[in-house]
Amino acid sequence: MKFFNAFRKKSPWILHYNAGSCNGCDIEILAALGPRYDLERFGVINTGNPKQSDIFLVTGPVTYRSRERLVELYCQIPEPKVVIAVGSCTAAGGVFRGMYNVEDGIDRYIPVDVYVPGCASSPQLIIDAVVESLQILERKSKAIETPFKLFGAVETVAGKLSRLGMAKKVTDAED
Amino acid sequence: MSLVMILLAPLLGGLVYGAERVLRARMQRRQGPPLLQPFYDMFKLMDKRTLIIHAPHALLAVAHFLLLWLAVGALFAGWNLLYIVFLHLFALIVLVLAGYSVRSPYSQVGANRELAALAAYEPILVLLAVGFYLVAGSFDVSAILAHGGYLAQMPLLFAALLIILPIKLKKSPFDTVEAHQEIVGGVEVEYSGLFYEFLYMARFLEYLFVYGLVFLFAGASPLWGLLLVLAVFLLVNLVDNATARVRTDQMVKIIYATAFTMATANIIWISL
C-alpha cells in the first residue's frame, strides 16, 4: 500500500554480516552506529536477526566458508529488502582478489543495490550508503527476490520448491 | 475516561518507549531517533512480508499481546490487583509456550530464560499485591488508589520493585531474557512482519504495566504518582546505561537474595 511506503525509510533495521572481511569495515560500521556518528537518529537498529531486518550490510570478499550463510541470510530477510556491499573487497575482491579461498565480490551470489568504496570505507560513506539505500527501499515492491545461486539440494513438496529434508517432520525427537 | 485510556494504551506505551529511546540517546550524548520512532517501526512492520513458522506460533504472539492489554486495561479500570498480576503471568506463560513451540535453539533458550526470570520476579509481584492488601485493606486498585501514600509503610517492597524493574523492561543488568548480542532476542527470534509487531507492541504495554505498579505507590495523589514514575524512569535508564549484563543464574540468585528477602521482611513488618 502507498500509505506504508513512507514509513519504510523512517525505520530501516540493519543486519550486518561479515563474509570473511578483515574486520576493518566492521569496525567502521560499528563506529557509524555508535554515539559519534549516531546512525540511530535515522531510526536504524542493528537487529542481528534476518527475519526482522530491511537492510543487509555485507562486508568482506565472500570466502568459500561464508557463501552458504550469505545466501541463507539473504533468503531469510523478508521483502522489501536492500543489500549494501561495504568496502572494496565486497565489490570486487579488493586485496584478496584472485586468492584460492575467495570469491571476488558478493554480486555473484546476491543482487546488490548500493556499493560502498574504500578500504576500509569510512563511517561517513556508510551513512551515505544507508541513506541512499532508503530511497531504493521506498521504491521497491514486495515481490520475492531470489539469490543468483542456491546451495544444497532442493526438492519439490506440494508443488513448492523446498530445501532437501526441510519439509519432513521429525518424528523421533529425543529429550 | 478509563475506557479511553484502555483503548489508547498501546499508543501511550509507544510514546513512553519513544521517550525512553530519546532519553537513552541523550545520556550517551547522541541525538537519538525521533519521539514517534516506535510508531514508524510499527507501520513499517505492517508493510513487511510475513514469514510464519506455524499457525499456533504466530497466534500465541497475538494472544500474548491481547492478554497483556487485558492486564493493563484491568489496572486502568481499577480491578483486583491480584487478578491483574496473574493475568500478566498468564500473558507471559503464553509467550514462553510460543518460544518452546519452534525448534530454533535461540527461541528455546529464550523461553528457558523467560521462565527463570518469571520464577525470580513473580513472587515479588504477588508479595507486592499482598503488601497493598495489608495496608489498604483491599486488593482492588481503585481502593488502593483511594488510600494515602504507601512509601512510608512499604519502602522495602518499593525497593524490591525497583530491583525487578530491569527484568520486566528488558534492561541491563537483567536483560538476559532478550540479550540481543547472544541469543538475538530470545523468544522473538522467529517472528517477522505483522506478528513480530504484536510482540513489539506488547513491549509498550509492559512499560505501562510496570510504571502503573510504580504509580500505585503514591496512592491518592496523582501528581506524586507521576513524579515517582518520572524519577523511576530516569533511574532505570541510568542503571541501564551504566551496568553490564549478568548471567541468568546470577540474576535469579541476586533477585532472591535481595528483592525477595526485602519484600518478605516488609510483609512481616507490616503484619506485626
Tell me what you see in this structure.
The complex is a heterodimer of chains A (175) and B (272). Chain A is an alpha/beta fold and 175 residues long. In chain A, 28% of the residues lie in helices and 19% in strands. Chain A has helices at 2-8, 24-33, 67-76, 88-92, 123-139, and strands spanning 13-18, 45-46, 55-59, 62-63, 82-86, 102-103, 114-116, 154-157, 160-163. In chain A, the strands form 3 sheets. A 5-stranded parallel β-sheet of chain A has the order 2-1-3-5-7. A two-stranded antiparallel ribbon of chain A has the order 4-6. A two-stranded antiparallel ribbon of chain A has the order 8-9. In chain A, strand 1, helix 2 and strand 2 form a beta-alpha-beta unit. In chain A, helix 1 (2-8) packs antiparallel against helix 5 (123-139) and helix 2 crosses helix 5. The longest helix of chain A is centred in the last third of the chain and has 17 residues, at 123-139. Chain A starts with a helix and ends in a 12-residue tail after the last strand. The mean pLDDT of chain A is 83. Chain B has helices spanning 2-7, 9-27, 37-47, 55-77, 81-100, 105-136, 141-146, 155-168, 180-183, 193-216, 222-242, 248-271. In chain B, helix 2 (9-27) packs across helix 11 and helix 6 (105-136) runs antiparallel to helix 8 (155-168). The longest helix of chain B has 32 residues, at 105-136. Chain B starts with a helix and ends with a helix. The interface between A and B is medium-sized, with 27 and 31 residues.
